[in-house]
Amino acid sequence: MKFTDTEFVLFDVETTGLSPLEGDRIIEFAALKVRRGQVVDCLTSLVNPNRALAAQDIHGITEDMLVDAPSSEEVLPQMIDFLGSACMVAHNASFDIKFLSYELSLAGRKLRDETPVLDTVKMARTFLPHLTSYRLSYLATSLGVPVAGTHRAQADTEILEKVFARLLYMAPDYNVHLLQDLIEQFGVEKPVFRLRTPEQPSLF
């Protein structure tokens, strides 16, 4: 399949820290569905992590903002239906997909095995090897994408959508024409976590 015929879902998460296995949780997520270069749907929500925050100086999300937010078990499984048969895309995708997969496992769910995940950092390193940084804001500025605000999931996802479009435009120059080409060169593996069941109070 040509990647121009592919449906993509660009996503981003904000978290309480760096590792779900050390107790960190998602506190916000956003996803944009793109079809033939146009955003056709979106899904976004704050998420109550049921734990204290430690990184609000980065994303500006406070505990008061999360008090009435749904839990991850309530809202994140919606991502599975939202994705459908789309290809997922994230910046430094291993980080985001690790958190999303872990949170879904806590709800007894997982992403479909056939759902591919692309990393725009990998794409940028191949197409723009001269850059001195591959942070999303720096990459966006280098590609002429306006950066009004970052470190909130929806804002980052909207920036990522424009960055990804520009990277796709460059892809044919590197003999990348098919979705399979993108997956082989820029895909990341989805981590596998043991699914929690009603009889299983904890994963570990």
Low-confidence sequence ranges: none
> Helix count?
9
For the largest sheet, list the strands in their spatial order. 3-2-1-4-5
Query: What is the CATH homology-level superfamily?
Result: Ribonuclease H-like superfamily/Ribonuclease H
Strand content: 15-25%
Proper CATH architecture: 2-Layer Sandwich
CATH class: Alpha Beta
Largest sheet: 5 strands, mixed
Query: For the terminal residues, how far apart are their CA atoms?
Result: 41 Å
**General form:** globular
Order of helices and strands: EEEHHHHEHEHHHH
Q: What structural class do helix, strand and pairing data support?
A: alpha/beta
Number of strands: 5
Rg for CA atoms: 17 Å
When the domains are counted, the total is: 1
CATH topology: Nucleotidyltransferase, domain 5
Describe this structure in words.
The structure is a single chain. With 204 residues, this protein is of the alpha/beta class. It has a single domain, classed as 2-Layer Sandwich (Nucleotidyltransferase, domain 5), CATH 3.30.420.10. It has helices at residues 56-59, 63-66, 72-75, 78-83, 93-106, 120-127, 136-142, 153-170, 179-186; strands at 7-15, 26-35, 38-46, 87-90, 117-119. A five-stranded mixed sheet has the order 3-2-1-4-5. Helix 5 (93-106) links the parallel strand 4 and strand 5. Helix 6 (120-127) runs parallel beside helix 8 (153-170) and helix 7 (136-142) packs across helix 8 (153-170). The longest helix is centred in the C-terminal third of the chain and has 18 residues, at 153-170. The radius of gyration is 17 Å and the shape is globular. The chain starts with 6 loop residues before the first strand and ends in an 18-residue tail after the last helix. The model has no long low-confidence stretch (mean pLDDT 92).
